[in-house]
Amino acid sequence: xxxxxxxxxxxxxxxxxxxxxxxxxxxxxxxxxxxxxxxxxxxxxxxxxxxxxxxxxxxxxxxxxxxxxxxxxxxxxxxxxxxxxxxxxxxxxxxxxxxxxxxxxxxxxxxxxxxxxxxxxxxxxxxxxxxxxxxxxxxxxxxxxxxxxxxxxxxxxxxxxxxxxxxxxxxxxxxxxxxxxxxxxxxxxxxxxxxxxxxxxxxxxxxxxxxxxxxxxxxxxxxxxxxxxxxxxxxxxxxxxxxxxxxxxxxxxxxxxxxxxxxxxxxxxxxxxxxxxxxxxxxxxxxxxxxxxxxxxxxxxxxxxxxxxxxxxxxxxxxxxxxxx
Length: 325
What we know:
Elements: E1 4-5, E2 24-25, H1 45-54, H2 67-75, E3 80-83, E4 97-100, E5 109-111, E6 117-120, H3 130-142, E7 148-150, H4 162-165, E8 175-176, H5 192-204, E9 208-210, E10 217-221, E11 226-230, H6 236-248, E12 259-266, E13 269-276, H7 282-300, H8 308-319, E14 322-323
Parallel strand pairs: 4-6, 12-14
Antiparallel strand pairs: 1-2, 3-4, 3-8, 5-6, 5-7, 9-10, 10-11, 11-13, 12-13
């Protein structure tokens, strides 16, 4: 009876079982709803609460600055950090808030000894809205005792989202790291547990770099070949048509030895993927990527029906498309 949720807009007027402020205490799913409707809680106020907690939000980062980079850091980039700007400014005693791809021991968040906050992005979340779960973790981290990690939980269904907490005009500028040394400001005094976690994470990290000059494009190096994975903000059907036009015209590559091999979906956005030769670095692909962005802009502006060759190219791209989230 300690936890409370507010009435939904579709709820009944407050009855004698509701709190003085109109809230309805949470009870067992099969118990009578405290609002006084005569129905079980599961079929009354509990229905809206359960739906809000489990409904999948397809684009959880929509409306945030750098949506494509949020998706990339969530799904593609091993080690990166971003300084976050809060809408209401930093609370007293919190010198900074930093988003990190992952934290030691997979902590959802950490309040450091100096009061600064690290928020982990790649953790599993308890509900269908990553933004709401991250916002809940962030709020708890801001008031946690310095030097303590913040554990995960299911965020309240009526709790704020990142879009409510972060400054919509704030810059979102990821810094990609070679390893996870940013975890440990003072490596000499790190615990054995954290040091071991750092070593394991560094050993598993794939070399990755963010391309300059284009948005949300990330180069990575693997033993067999390199790749470029580019998170794009355009509507999926329109983007696939544009990619098919370029592919059929022989204009979808990023230079000799490169190939557009398909795409995947992640958090409501489409991510085309190119295979690159092993020797092609992030610096090497920077200019070809900028030139491709110009060709893509022209293809996106074309409304003509796809030709037979373009339809075949589109079919090949969609056949190789997978959904990550």
